[in-house]
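Fold it.
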Amino acid sequence: MKKVTPKLKNFTIASLKPLFLFVLVVISINAYKLSCRIDFNVKGLENKKIFFAYEYGIKEIVLDTIKLDKEGKGFYSSKNRLTGGIYVVVFPNNKYIEFLINEEQFFTINSDTSDLFNNITIEGSEESELFRQYQVLAKEYENCVKKDQTLLKKNDTLFGKPVPDKKLVELRKKMDAFSEKILIERPKSFMAVYLRMQKDPQVPENLVYKNPELSREFILNRYKYSKAHYFDNIPFSDIRILRTRLIFEKLDHYFNYFISQDADSLISAMNNVIILSKVNEESLHFTLNFLNINYRNPKNPSQEKAFVYLADNYYLDGNSKWADANFLKLLKIKVDNLRTTMIGNTAPDLELNASNGKTVKVHDIQSDYLVIYFWSPDCNECKTETPELFNFYDKYKNKGLKVIAVYTHTDKEIWNAYLNDHKFDWINAYDPLLKSNFTKLYNVKNIPKLFLLDKDKRILAKDINISQLELLFRKKIKE
């Protein structure tokens, strides 16, 4: 049987051109297919530039600079979808508008410079439009409150006391009704997530404010419940919340105002929140970054201890492969410097020149309590604090107290002249060649700076004023 071979009739290279061009067009269309386009139409900003950004905590991360045309129109487009969150358009006069982006990523924002906020309209995104409507209500409520600041004093959100102003109450009811409608009808939307984040956790019936006479036990129990459930409405698993200011505001309020500010409470709170954020890597990094920024310049010994704990357990433990190597190196240097003078640690020894010409070592000074005082005669605050410290010393020097006052500058004449005019009979010392490295060992960046040590040279207190020093000292000598 003869095999039949099919033949291509009139086959030429030219005959493939239409097919080739069709395939090329299809590939090109797919390669440049847009997944997002936001159009802007702003009357009054013809031929001007605007900035398109998203919120990330309290930062605004710029995605693009958009040049508006002669009609005030421009757009942002991308082959990749945007992560849901709150986005911002910043105008040339530094005014800005916020809008929500989630599933619907092809829409238009209209406004004009006569009133950028109130003239906004959004076409093509129902959820973004709902967010705009909520903003209008929130702005009206905020303006009403600002008209009479005394209303803020009358309003107690912690215990739910009603605000007596009728207009404010009605606006609050409108906002609550608007929120409830979205929570019921669109429970899985990002708008619902955003609204839930603003709500405080619902307390049980026995902790609802009813009696104007609040017992200490009631207040404590309500606080404990609120603390334990503070983050109930914060879904760390949803990275869209990181692209809002709300998450920063919640963390800031919790760590800086809501919880007790002693070191143990701060460290416990850190651990609890970090555990919550470990649900995904981006939330963990965001939380650790917030805590690092919040405590890297500690304002008191409790914050200092919390910062060192954070660095040791979450950055310098060898598991932070995502962190920049240079950042980790600098962090270790900073933490090691802080660690030397943490409360409870043994104070670093210093070898200094005393005013009598002899050498004196801090660890050789025998006393039940020792104050190390870094100062200079030409320091304005020192001019007030030094006489106060001497009065304190003179009052308690028979109670096992000694003071070594360390002059931090190198001009011996100024120092000697001051000592001649002020007969301080404590130990006066200085380090003209800075051999002791006291500025690093004791982290002396500003003066006056004061440390209280016990007989074993352990640090009991630091960076306190003379009144606080006396209260602590009186308590110690009674123990």
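The chain has three domains: 36-124, 200-339, 351-478.
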